[in-house]
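Assess the record.
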Amino acid sequence: MNLKPRAIKSDIPVKMNKPENEKPSRWSFLKVLREYSNLKEYYPEINPYAEAYRWKENLYCIFAPSVLGGCGDMWVYLIIGPEKALLIDTALGLGDLKGLCEKLADGKEIICANTHNHLDHIGGNSQFDKVYINEFDAEVLEEHNNPKFMREKLLNPDGTGKDAEFDVNQLVKHQHYEIVPVKDGHIFDLGAGYEVELIHLSGHTAGQSAFYDKQTKCLFIGDTTSAWGGDAGERYPQYCTVNSFRDRVKRVIDKYGDEISGVYPGHGVLDLHPIVLQYELDTCNQIIEHPDWSSKTVMFGETRELCAQYIYQFGSDFKYSKDAIIKED
């Protein structure tokens, strides 16, 4: 059977040589959204590598295609407040994301923040003088804050794309930016009392965090479907566990569960029903109680084998290593 992923029509000038496997729950949603909806705003004269979708009056969901094998297409989010706008994540740094956001926000000041320190969420950080991130991911982000990091990940030694064909001159030129570590509960004030709260949702990384828009009740969760126990040299391995994520997502449900209007992940389908947080919680509890019940194993990259347990109605698995499970009495 031919398992080659079906292309979705797009004017974005990227040819992926190692496309992500097609996921039915995502593909049909993106097919309709990207090919047939009237929400799309595309400004190739500013940034040909992004599509903006006006999801709410003051919310743009910005689609950025992947150019790296093993990394799915990304969503970054722009919340436009009365005086300032908050940009959540910067994808892989292909194209003028800052210029696009300034266009969409009508020239308002852009505050940039990352959900976590992985390269598909930080690539465009260099367009901003200052970037906010949870305190437990700040040290690793500083290590990535150099001219070589993104280029070595995305490009061959001869300067061509490793996994995709695209104009490499459109990669953001690195400039060292200030990293501002912030604590759980940090408030971003977008003017006139418009508040967005950073919520620590550790697991995927030690500092992985969500952002909660207290006005629209939208929750932007980044990546919340894995816990690896911490890479070699991880400074805060206690936050890279299934248990840590379970405890923190339960806290979100207890505090905001009755009012959340929609959940927006870093990859996949937008505006998920908040019940998916409960499904993630249930899956984590099952993993902790029965660590040998994984439904399958998957490869993350070329070297890391992880267990995986399906998350009901999420369209994805929760992936974890055995050392990411803390046995409970």
